[in-house]
Known about the structure:
35% of the residues lie in helices and 23% in strands.
Amino acid sequence: MKILQWFVPLAVIALLAGCSGTASDGNGVIKVGTDAVYPPFETQKGNGEIVGFDIDIIQAIAEAEEMEISVHHTGWDPLFEAIDRGQMDMGISAATITEDRKKKYDFSEPYFEAKQLILVPENADVKSLADLKGKKIGVQSATTGEAVVTKAFGKTYKGLRGYDDTPGAIDDLVAGRVDAVVADNGVVQDYMKKKLEGGKFKTIEDDSFDPEFYGIIVKKGNQEMLDKINSGLEKIQNDGTYDKIYNKWFGDKK
Ligand code: ARG
């Protein structure tokens, strides 16, 4: 089954804001939203095609459940809004299952384990999160990276710099406009490998960072969709498809 993928400009989402009901586009195609600025989980190629670990996972789940899906780049905050409004049937976006989010959304079973990671220049005298106190810290707004920083230094911490996407924060670190970035390990490690090689940056773990688990997001109460997602996820975990996708994006670690 072919997955249709196209970019939905935010303007279109805004235009659709008045519509209600299910997001599927009338042909039974299930709409999947993502913030496709998050390699290797979701990223947009030059031609607009959205690719990544998450995309392969949701495509495999869809195939296992005989669903037809289309994947749309919504951005991060707008993804949650689009699910609220029923414009997207689900979201897959390296989204951590948190108690807070569970109040407003339902999540699939966990499909990936992650952790926060601190990224600093190689010569920075930083060994833990506490050492970042007083420094400018870049995070993607409304993410768990932001949450660990505000938990440590307060919600009104002056050094906090929020970005719409994680690469924006990392670019500002490279440009010297922030002293550190706190973000998910997968995306930070991918950056280290592909863009920051040359030893000018290093990553720091902190004991206070809890394991995080990514889940697929649906509107609260959409049990039918949730059941299908969980059933598909179980199938691809049992038949080796999940491991194949994992190895494709993260090497032979599993
Ligand atoms: N796991 C983190 C969170 O849920 C960051 C996810 C950001 N994902 C993205 N595609 N931008 O808060």
